[in-house]
Write a structure and sequence with these properties.
The protein is α+β, with helices and mostly antiparallel strands. The protein folds into two domains: 175 residues, Thermophilic metalloprotease-like; 208 residues, no CATH class. Helix content is 34%, strand content 25%. The strands form five sheets. The protein has an eight-stranded antiparallel beta sheet, with no helix packed on it. A five-stranded antiparallel beta sheet has the order 7-10-16-17-18. A four-stranded parallel beta sheet has the order 2-1-3-4, with helices on one face. A hairpin with a 2-residue loop joins strand 12 and strand 13. Helix 6 packs across helix 7. The protein is globular. The chain starts with 5 loop residues before the first helix and ends with a strand. The relative contact order is 0.12.
């Protein structure tokens, strides 16, 4: 295999994230969040952003070592403290219409799991509460945002096994190049076409006016009620300005998603891929629902991380998203577990516990949190995806009269 040169690879990736991911506009400000390890690539992104007309690029780099130092040596009474200008910064991101680009690429993937979970929970809860307005604005299309990945030797070693090295990091880059089709002459055009395909699939799903979705497979028999009139969305999210522009919150993306009725989930689901919860990898998780809420749960490993997750917010036990992905996903086809929710959730069908993306529900952008809850839209300070799909999981839809409509059979869309 002939690899792209590092320079070409980075330039293509940066342009894809800016052109399609956040859909950066002339005069728009850009916030980039990543670990310091990625400084060299972040400079490439900033350079390309200024070429495209960005008025200002701000890079915020953080490292798990700083959180470790705070937990080990900081006073526990101070762990919920944020700097005084944090809220003002977040309000500015919204009012000034910034674009926000966030990278997953840990230099030490296991660092968070070794920290005191109670203290880490205090820090994460304070951050979640503070940034909720930005998350809500992003879900409503008022802030354009995108999440992407950048390999590190340690993360690559977690994916493929062995010891961290430059060679295994390049192996992970090879997967990313293939999944994102960066070898194409114009990766942005490829993803715009993918966006159109997902939109057409969503139009078909929306036209079915489904009342319920049922997932059936080993360890899973889950029925999720839909909100009447809610749309299915995929590929891109329209901006709140309603100017025809869209942005792609996840790159890559393979999903069609909607907002379920928080009060209408029944049954059991078996999670088929590991999920990092509160900094700890949870395997073999399962959940049982009644009247919309998780009433029982467990895991093969690290159930305590789920305990910490549910303790974060009283609405963490309700669904906020259901997403359909079939086994033609290039991520699924690699056969790899990436230990990164962005990639693993785009390998198969998944649901999210916690906060909903309200955009699929008409008029939701103008609703208060109380009104959203009354409509069945879950409101929470957390959002965590759990994968429940695969070759042996079928997905059925049911209209208002109870007619069964096969959606995914043997892992593939049959619409």
């Amino acid at each position: 295999m002939v690899r792209l040169s590092k320079e070409i690879r980075e330039q293509k990736y940066a342009r894809l994230l800016l052109e399609v991911g956040v859909n950066l506009q002339v005069g728009q400000k850009l916030l980039i969040e990543a670990e310091p390890y990625h400084w060299e690539f972040l400079n490439v992104v900033a350079e390309e952003a200024y070429k495209m007309g960005a008025s200002y690029v701000l890079v915020e780099a953080n490292h798990t070592g700083l959180i470790k130092a705070r937990i080990q040596h900081g006073a526990e009474d101070d762990l919920n403290q944020l700097v005084s200008w944090t809220d003002k910064k977040y309000r500015s991101l919204i009012s000034e219409g910034w674009a926000r680009l966030k990278f997953f690429g840990p230099t030490d993937p296991s660092a968070m799991s070794l920290l005191d979970s109670d203290k880490l929970g205090i820090i994460q809860k304070a951050h979640s509460i503070s940034i909720k307005p930005v998350s809500d604005a992003g879900g409503a299309g008022k802030v354009t945002w995108s999440v992407a990945v950048l390999p590190t030797p340690a993360w690559a070693a977690k994916v493929f096994g062995g010891e961290p090295s430059a060679e295994v990091e390049e192996r992970l880059w090879d997967d990313i190049v293939k999944i994102l089709n960066l070898e194409a002459d114009d990766p942005s055009a490829y993803w715009r076409n993918k966006c159109d395909l997902l939109k057409k699939r969503c139009e078909v799903l929306s036209g079915l006016n489904l009342a319920e979705i049922r997932f059936i497979g080993p360890g899973t028999d889950l029925v999720v009620k839909c909100i009447a009139g809610s749309k299915w969305m995929g590929g891109g999210i329209p901006t709140a300005a309603d100017d025809g522009k869209v942005f792609m919150p996840n790159l890559p993306t393979e999903e069609c998603f909607t907002t379920p009725n928080r009060r209408g989930t029944e049954g059991r689901m078996q999670v088929v891929r590991p999920v990092d919860v509160m900094g700890t990898t949870v395997t073999g998780a399962w959940f049982e629902f009644e009247d919309g809420k998780v009433i029982s749960y467990g895991a093969a490993t690290n159930k305590s991380a789920l305990d910490d997750f549910f303790a974060m917010c009283p609405n963490a036990g309700y669904l906020g998203e259901i997403a359909l992905v079939d086994s033609t996903s290039p991520i699924f086809e690699t056969g790899n577990i990436y230990h990164c929710i962005l990639y693993d959730e785009n390998a198969c069908c998944h649901v999210a516990l916690g906060s909903a993306y309200p955009v699929p529900v008409e008029g939701s952008s103008d609703m208060t949190d109380v009104e959203k809850m009354a409509e069945g839209i879950n409101v929470s300070i957390v959002h965590m995806d759990f994968m429940i799909g695969g070759h042996d999981v079928d997905v059925m839809g049911y209209d208002g009269l109870g007619k069964e409509i096969p959606l995914i059979v043997d892992g593939k869309f049959v619409l």
